[in-house]
Amino acid sequence: MSIPTDLKYTKDHEWVRLEGETAIFGISQHAQEALGDIVFVELPELETKLDAGEAIAVVESVKAVSDVYVPVTGEVIKINELLEETPELVNNDSYGQGWIAKLKVSADMDTSSLMDATAYQAFLDQ
Amino acid sequence: MFSGTTGIQHEEALIFEREHHNASSIQLPGVEAELSSELLAFQRQKSAHIPNLSEPETVRHFVRMSQWNHGIETGFYPLGSCTMKHNPRINEQIARLDGFAHIHPEQADESVQGTLQIMHQLSQDLGEISGFAHVSLQPAAGAHGELTGLMMIRACMDERKQTQRRVVLVPDSAHGTNPASAALCGMRTIEIPSASNGRIDLEILATYLNDEVAAFMITNPNTTGMFESDIQRICDMVHEAGALVYGDGANLNALVGMARPGDMGIDCLHINVHKTFATPHGGGGPGAGPIAVNDTLAAFLPVPRIIKTEDEHYHLQYEATQSIGSMLGSMGQVGVLLRASAYIAAFGRDKLHMIAQDAVLNANYVLSRLKDHYDVPFAGLCKHECLLTDAKQQEYGIKTLDIAKYLIDLGMHPMTVYFPLIVQGAMLIEPTETESKQTLDDFCDAMIDIARMAKEEPEPLHQAPQKPIRTRLDEVQAARKPVLVWPEEA
Predict the structure, then answer these.
(1) Structure confidence by residue, pLDDT tens digits, B422-471
(2) H or E stretch including B244?
(3) Does residue A115 lie in a domain region?
(4) Which chain A residues have a beta carbon less than 8 Å from that of B417?
(5) By residue range, what is the domain housing residue A67?
(6) Angstrom distance (rounded) from CA A94 to CA A103
(7) Based on the structure, what is the number of domains in chain A?
(8) Domains of chain B: residue spans and CATH
(9) What ipTM did this prediction achieve?
(10) In this complex, which of A34, A39, A63 lies closest to B480 when CB atoms are compared?
(11) Does B418 touch chain A (CB under 8 A)?
(12) Could you give the C-alpha distances from B54 to B20, B25, B57, B237, in angstroms and in order?
């Protein structure tokens, strides 16, 4: 499977798209495959402020319920409401329409713990 | 020949679809009394819509649906972590005796001395089996026992003026009830990652212990079927950090008569008597989850407590200043507890260890027959249940779910699937001590043939089950678009 090169990744299999003072994130293709058919996504509330690594959302599949951890420190400014009715978007288009939330972040935040596509691929191959 | 491959099956509609308006098995009398205006305000305006069916039609409706079910009395039921063992018939007879079945929780103690005596004896037996000095029979289920135990631990921390201790550490392999019980008790759960051998890693545990931790919850053997061999060191570390160890007794079947959680350093343990001591369960109850504790927690046990006086009389004591209170009315689920008493008595002190020995032997027999055909995530002998994965079958596009569904076509209940969560494609198999070698061989033959089919003819596995009255259900649609209510105006 191809891993988009314009995104960053966490060890918990979230992806994040950094664009200046905003960041959009979701779960990786690998994560959605491991979970199987996703039947419910519990989205965060707007204006929630979280530190990187804190649980921000919950994805529920036929097999399991898993926390989603926020990849970077920030405040929730937009959530993907489409997932309330069509959680399968996370399966079908995990890097696109399956995004979970958009964050306001500070441009000089620490992103050193995030992996690029090459490093994430190597992490998956371990 | 597998038992599930033949049989008459009656189709059956919903009871509302079956009803017709010229027969009814119930005739309610009219209201003769004059109702006051206060009562009239509550009078039902719309029909209660009790379906119009004759008694034989009603009986057939429920009997037919019961025949779609698969229970331990229909066939093999190796549902891991659930201990689906045979429920001996004599236990049913004992629980139905007049003196037990027709008593009332509010009856005077003097009139129920026999029941109180047996409950007192059961408390002592459970204490001796688990290695604890004090037992309350009150909790109504395993998770209720967890809640009871955590409430006692919380009360203990409060008494020690350690009110900041509100964190419960839980391994990532734990039963889902553990974090749920902690949340219900107003505590916060922190999950501890397991080591690569599926067990608790002492170094990892050490990094999580601090002065906010009230309890560490541990299941031993754990949910991968492996014994936590560092258990004593784990308990020492938790105690040195000022916290207590809660034992999830769901897997006690592996230990009965062989090893005692109380001796391992655990402070508090619930016992799923409906699993370990063979009372009917599944489908939501009834169960019973007595809680056993050491001296540290004894003062906080629920009330009433069964007290034996010097002159051999028994009474229920409701006064205890530090008690967390009542978790359920009276003594608990007496009907279930009686069956458990009978199971323990049937073995007796000398033979009780045969429960654990045979349960562990059966699980290892299954493991040894299947280990060349399925991936085994953790090497070595297992305890009362064995863990396999679908890693070898994934290569051919066959998943754990397909394997489980095909077992239904062979007349067997599937194993527990996709649990524990830390193992991809998990299949957790618990045969229990009550199955014969013949039954285990039938199951192993079926599993070995499924492994062959995955390679050579996978299609029936994808389509399974085909034999039951309902074939493969669309679990995804059922979860995404559940239809839970029959429309009032159809």
Answers:
(1) 999 999 999 999 999 999 999 999 999 999 999 999 999 999 999 888 89
(2) strand B244-248
(3) no
(4) 63
(5) 8-105
(6) 18
(7) 1
(8) 103-351 (3.40.640.10), 353-479 (3.90.1150.10)
(9) 0.70
(10) A39
(11) yes
(12) 9, 4, 5, 65
